[in-house]
Structures are given as C-alpha cells and as structure tokens.
Amino acid sequence: MEIKITKTQAPKAMPKESELGFGQYFSDHMFVMDYEAGKGWFNARIVPFGNISLHPASTVLHYGAEIFEGLKAYRTEDGRVQLFRPMENIKRLNTSAERMCLPTIDEGDALEILETFVRLEEKWVPKSFGTSLYLRPYMFGNDETLGVHTVHRATYMIIASPSGSYYKEGINPVKIMIENEDVRTVRGGTGYAKCGGNYAASTRAGERANKKGYSQVLWLDGVERKYIEEVGAMNVMFKINGEIITPELTGSILPGITRKSCIEVLKNLGYKVSERLLSIDELLEAMKAGKLEEAWGCGTAAVVSPIGRLMYQDVEYVINNEKIGEVTQKLYDILTGIQWGKIEDTYNWVHKL
Ligand SMILES: *Cc1c(COP(=O)(O)O)cnc(C)c1O
Hints:
- This protein has two domains: about 5-165, 2-Layer Sandwich (D-amino Acid Aminotransferase, Chain A, domain 1); about 175-340, Alpha-Beta Barrel (D-amino Acid Aminotransferase, Chain A, domain 2).
- It is globular, with a radius of gyration of 21 Å.
- α5 (about 255-270) packs across α7.
- A hairpin with a 7-residue loop joins β10 and β11 (about 230).
- The protein is an alpha+beta fold.
- The strands form two sheets. Strands 1, 2, 3, 4, 5, 6, 7, 8 and 18 form a nine-stranded mixed β-sheet that branches. Strands 9, 10, 11, 12, 13, 14, 15, 16 and 17 form a nine-stranded mixed β-sheet that branches.
- It has seven helices and 18 strands.
- Pyridoxal-5'-phosphate binds near residues 233, 258, 299 and 300.
C-alpha cells in the first residue's frame, strides 16, 4: 500500500528516560488514514504530530463510535526494535470495529502501516529495560451529520508515546476494590470490544476506589454482580489451592493478549489453568480459608501486577502477605524477558523490525 510521508520540520528532543511516565510525551509524527463507504480506506499518510480538526457534528463526538488498541515497541540490548504479537492487536481492532459498526482494515495493510510508522519513529523507542514506545492505534466514526446509523466516514490513526518503566520503584502489589454498584458492561454489550465508551462508563467507580485508597476496581458481571470479570484495564488471575483460575471470555470481558500469553506460558510450565466462571462467593471463601495463594492483573502496560489487598463491602483481605507471588514473578520474568529480548522466544511471539 502507499503511505505518503511528510516529515516534521521541527523534530523534538527525547525526554530523559527516567522522566517518561506514561502517555505524557508524543513522538514527532502520527499516522492518519480516511475511510468513506463505497470508497474504502484512502489517503494513508504519516504527518507531523499535531491537532486534528473535526466537524462539530462528527459521529464520535455525539455517539461515541471509537475503538482503540495498545501495544509497545521494545528495544533489545543489541539496539534492535521489536513488537510483541502485533497481529493479535490487529485482529482485535477488527473485532472491535465490527461490534461498533466501524470499518475493518485489511490485516496485511494494518501490519504494514504499523511497521512503517514504528520504523520512522525508531529514535523514540527508549533504551532501558522496562521502557518502551507505547503505540496507540485508534479509529473513530466521522460522519458529518447528527443522523444515527452505521458509520459512512471514519478515520484511523496511530500515535506513539515513549513510556517509562512501570516498575521504577520495584514491583509493589496493588490494592484493589471489588465494585458492587456500577458495572462495566453486560453480555451482549461491548465488553469484548476495546472501545472508549467502556472506559467512560467505568471512570466513576475508579474514582470512588481512588478516594478510598485503592488503585483500581475489580468488576463483577453486569447481570448478577456475582462473577469476577476483570480489573480496570487488566484481566485478572487467581491461584487458589494450586489451581490458576481466570474468568472465561463470556463476551463482557476484554480478551487480553497478555492474558492469552500468560495462559500459554503457565500451561507450558505445567500449571493447571482453568478459564471458567469464578463467583465472588468462591473467591471470598478461598480468602477466608487462606487458600488464595496469589492474585494478579495482566495487561500490556504493567505486564503483570500483583494484587496485595482486595476489598469487598468494606472488608479487606490481604493476599500473600502483600508480596509478589512465585507464579506472578515467573510470568513477569518470562514475558518481559521475551519482550525485551533477554530470553529466547520459543513461542514465536516477537515481531522484529
Ligand atoms: C486493553 C485491555 C486489557 C488488556 O489487554 P492486553 O491485550 O493484555 O493489553 C484488559 N482489559 C481491558 C478493559 C482493556 O482495555
């Protein structure tokens, strides 16, 4: 495919790697491509990073037609740049698009776009272990009318943000609040799509959790508020009595690529992994009986994030003495090892550029 490149006249300097944080700085360029029904995708271009202009009636501003992805470009010790399972992100982008009546993108084109963009922004991939260039592909409906219908015009973009190590101060277990008022989504809804609307709907509970001193919420299912779903922007896993349990993908849970990778690694290590329904009652019982051995969230940003405390209806439960567990640590070492090229990628997950 043809991608027109217009380079910036004013390249920026990369901030110090120790000061990167998350999502605060942006690289020099961005990718943009337009879609019109009947015409398909056209005008693929990389342009200097900057503001965009939208019609005031643009669909995304009124009806929330927006989806996104999140993945990282990693720099290995020998200076090369690589991606982690990018086709999984591309496939999920198309699944999300289908759910939100947005146009899909040819998988081969989507990969070529990603590769071309990351190669151009190569200098923005930081060097130290744990740091990365966070890539944010996203798509939104852009019809210039207030009519409610499937999207006829859309825009696909990618921006890139150099990001610091998630664990600058070591891997400290987090405190999580189990939410039993708000729900994130329901089966039949948009839970399995990575869309902005899911986040807009979950911010209120997140704020309440923060006020009480918890970093994120653990969602229960939207129908009975009985089954464990996921944490904020991460999937969740528990080790109960030797069995590793993660909620099955019922349609209301986001199918995380880190989740999928953790399952494969754990099975390969010989652990018993069950993707099944896990009720809050079963979890509470396990915690009271001291059988909840480990709990962790998993997602691209943190890789794995051990959970040290869980709160449900104002009662707090401490997990593994608020220390990272053995399985969580193993997953962290193996996944980050593969991503930053420190250990051999026996899974064929790495996509070198
Ligand atoms: C992105 C995301 C995840 C994690 O998915 P990864 O592919 O592992 O990064 C989990 N839950 C939600 C709600 C998400 O948006």
